[in-house]
Amino acid sequence: MNYAVDKLVLVPDDIDLSRSPLAGHLNVETYVLGAFNPGLTRLASGNLLMMVRVAEALRHPVKDGNVHSIRWEAVEGDTKGRYVLDAWPLDYADTADPRKFMLRGGGWKIMALTSLSWLLPVELTPDGLEVVAIHYDRAIAPQDSFQCYGVEDARISKVGDRYLMTTCSVSPERHSTTLYSSPDGLDWTFEDIVLDHQNKDMLIFEGLIRGQYWAQTRPLGDLYFAYPPGSEWRAGPSINLALSPDGYFWKPYRKPGIRPHAGTVATARMGGGTPPMLTEQGWLSLWHGVEPKEIVGIYRTYWSILDRDDPSTVLATNHAPLLEANPALTQPIEHQMYIRDVVFTTGIANGGDHYIVASGEGDLACRITHIPKGVFHA
Predict the structure, then answer these.
(1) What sign results for the dihedral spanned by CA atoms 178, 182, 186, 189?
(2) What's the domain range around 325?
(3) Edge-to-edge strand order for the sheet containing 93-94?
(4) Cα angle 127-132-134, degrees, rounded to a multiple of 5
(5) For strand 100-103 and strand 93-94, is the pairing parallel, antiparallel, or unpaired?
(6) How many CB atoms lie within 10 A of CB 179?
(7) Do residues 272 and 199 make contact, with C-beta atoms less than 8 angstroms apart?
């Protein structure tokens, strides 16, 4: 589907790595592999705030027969810690995917990343189409061992007067969901780990339901039990639900959420996209579906409307993609492309007669799309 307003608003060359949290720590050259997957919220000023994932990578990761990765480690007496390099023998590494390398010989899947991610607040005009300021002084970087390989993929929800931001924190200890809070959407306080190992894409609903906080979650695993023959559902990752009295302690909801449909391969893998927003029809949820293709797959954005009182009830959904990767947008930065067919939607804001939707394009840049509200109907 084509939209009248659809553009890249932030690309890797817009990032000044001399102001990166990693600056001065590594005696090697780094570059921006991607500035993408932005959380989005509206500030009290009316401007929009993107929380951008900056994946900072080694320019030359392979040296002396080893492939290297970046890791944060604690330093006694220094709350910011330091960044170091780890070396892995190339004989044990599968480097087919430019975003990561798999390590062989462990008996199970083990991987390391080719970049370390940190979060950068980028302020936009109220329509989301121009950058007002890049707040390097408010960047969010690893600060504990459970974040030693980076902080990724922010999602921002405003519940009452409080901004809540979920992120993925990556380490050998766990691949967990971590929570930050803010009174203004700009100054963030780390709260704690709120979901444990390999539970990705946690999206807090922008409002309470029956006095409780609700969230979409997406647990990962290597084993899924089959649905009965002829079922409308496909076994695999799905978007689950959880609820909480305070936003910190979460209990899984007993009913399933949005499940992959057996009638399409486009949701062979799926997960949450934007925090659900309450509309007159119910909760609007944008999510991603992945069609298998080569190493990464084809990522597209889809939508569902959920019942306002019981979000496990899906009132409407559409198998036609809302957003697909747009090669015309990335043509000016074609020389920096390393994967294709990927749009990963991560933020939404009200724009009057349309929604302002923020996405990562090609794991490379930030895309803003204005989508008319009439597109969504139960």
Answers:
(1) negative
(2) 6-375
(3) 93-94, 100-103, 111-113
(4) 125
(5) antiparallel
(6) 20
(7) no
- Sign of the torsion formed by the C-alpha atoms of 162, 165, 166 and 172: negative
Cα distance between residue 153 and residue 360, in whole Å:
10
pTM of the model: 0.96
Domain-embedded: residue 266: yes
Which burial class, exposed, middle or buried, applies to 301 when counting CB atoms under 10 A from its CB (0-12, 13-18, 19+)?
A: buried
**Residue 284 CA: distances (Å) to CA of 260, 290, 307, 324:** 17, 20, 9, 19
164 bridge partner residues: 157, 181
> Is 130 within a domain?
yes
Contacts with 375 (C-beta within 8 Å, 6 or more apart), sequence order: 1, 303, 322
CATH number at residue 24: 2.115.10.20
| Eight-state DSSP code of residue 25 | T
Reading the block at residue 123, the tokens are 């302020």
Query: What are the tens digits of pLDDT across the range 210-257?
Result: 999 999 999 888 899 999 999 999 999 999 999 999 999 999 999 999
User: How many angstroms separate the first and last alpha carbons of the chain?
Assistant: 19
Q: Is residue 291 part of a domain?
A: yes
Within a domain: 1: no
Tell me the pLDDT tens digit for each residue of 164-194.
999 999 999 999 999 999 999 999 999 999 9
Domain count, the chain: 1
